[in-house]
Amino acid sequence: MPEESVLLGVEGRTGRVTLNRPRAINALTHEMVTRISGALDAWEQDPRITAVVITGAGERGLCAGGDIRAIREDVRTGGGDASTAFWRDEYRLNARIARCSKPYVALMDGIVMGGGVGVSAHGSVRIVTERSRVAMPETGIGFVPDVGGTYLLALAPGQLGTHLALTGAAVGPADALLCGLADHFVPADRLPALLSDLSRADVADVLPSYVRDAPPGELGANREWIDHCYAADTVEEIVDRLLDSGVTAAKETAGTLLGKSPTALKVTLAALRRARRLGSLEAVLAQEYRVSCAALHHPDFAEGVRAQVIDKDRAPRWTPASLGEVTDDEVAGFFAPLGDRELSWPVGDSAREAPR
């Protein structure tokens, strides 16, 4: 029999979620999201459970995101209905994690990208290791950061979140801490002992003895040019500032941006700026659902997945091909209301401020 894609169980005082698709770096499926949500329903009501812990099977990472190959195929054969249904439940789970009434401990070891950020970085106790690589890389496949990613990145200091959202760059532990995507650094070889202790005692009593200083990161030294360049009003001006900065790393970043989907870049910048004004995580997730539904049917998504995942030629042909060809009206269309298809919340779940 095939192994279960997510393992759920109770170990002492903890409810344990183990994402269990190691060959796919634990990429999320709709079934996995549904089962995690059901487990949270049960564990939040169980007085024996004092914390929820999420980990990933295998050595490569917690979770590489959603199964984008399957999403592309769903658009091709089923019109995308299965994917939008998946996102509806996934985004609700992201908000649910942020509101969890018990400590939600995410071991963000290894690769944590896209949907992996959604099931970890909204938690109350987010732990990174020296192996952590955290990213929202959606612009490289013609998509836009979702799963509450624009909410988290909009809260990052200065323009660091804008830099990460547009470039899709992966950051290590120190930079994840700096950007507010994680809370604590624990060496990877200490995780088994940490899990064992969490099963017997409260998080607040266990964690301090495991936390260490993270190895130095890279973003802090680049804050000056990042904050200046990404404060521009448009993607075109951001690129111009990067090219004119006189900083080698900034010029290289301009080249990175020019290889991404022009449409995705412009929509991402607009989504981040809007997210800063929306306030609550739920409001931002509702916006992301509109954008995701629109991006699903834009030609750049299918082309980006083809180039990066299927053919792997790394040579996407974007439509349109340049930033100047993407109009303001086209960007605004990604934010158009969905009518009765809007992301809604179950009765009793108010759209309140997330606890971060």
UniProtKB/TrEMBL annotation:
Annotated GO molecular function terms are: 3-hydroxyisobutyryl-CoA hydrolase activity; isomerase activity
Q: Which residues form a coiled coil?
A: none
InterPro entries, per this entry?
ClpP/crotonase-like_dom_sf, ECH_dom, HIBYL-CoA-H
* EC id: 3.1.2.4
What's a single GO CC term here?
cytosol
Would I find Hydrolase among this entry's keywords? Answer: yes
Keywords, A to Z, come to: Hydrolase, Isomerase
Instruction: Give one Pfam family, short name only.
Output: ECH_2
- The UniProt record lists the keyword Isomerase: yes
Supply one GO BP term: L-valine catabolic process
Please report the stretch or stretches of sequence annotated as the Enoyl-CoA hydratase/isomerase domain. Answer: 15-335
Q: Which reaction does it catalyse?
A: 3-hydroxy-2-methylpropanoyl-CoA + H2O = 3-hydroxy-2-methylpropanoate + CoA + H(+)
Provide the protein name.
3-hydroxyisobutyryl-CoA hydrolase
The organism named in the record is Streptomyces piniterrae
